[in-house]
Design goal:
With about 140 residues, this protein is mainly α. Helix content is about 70%, strand content about 0%. The protein contains six helices and no strands. The chain has helices at about 1-20, 35-55, 65-90, 90-105, 110-130, 140-145. The longest helix is centred in the middle third of the chain and has 24 residues, at about 65-90. The radius of gyration is 19 Å and the shape is flat. The mean pLDDT is about 90.
Length: about 140
Amino acid sequence: MIADRIAGLALAAFAVWYGLAASAYTAGFSDPLGPSAFPRMVAVPMGLLSLYLILKPDPDPAWPRGSALLGQAAAVATLVLFAMAIRPLGFPLSAFLAVTVLARILGGGWRQSLATAAGLAVGLHLLFQFALDLSLPLGTLWFGS
């Protein structure tokens, strides 16, 4: 019960910081919403849901143990490494590697994990590049800075 409240307080503080930090974003183009719209759209529900954790904590939470805890730690480590790898390896390759590892952690077979990772990496890259007109890094290792 106390763990839910501590997590709720931490998430509430993060939501406030995230929302305030987003207000400092500026863009040199004429976007009617501005670059701070999406982070604020994330901060508001995060803050509201953190209040739920504070006000209605689980009276008997089940803590992960053994392989479940190890899997969660591996997933967090994978996401941190993914964020660190985007610039040097590029989005397509780093997304492919991260999704492959995450799919394996979640119990997918090698064939399923590799196929899912390939589809997501290419699909997301194409979505960002052409539909959203946002450039993702292709990798400083391959293409320089």
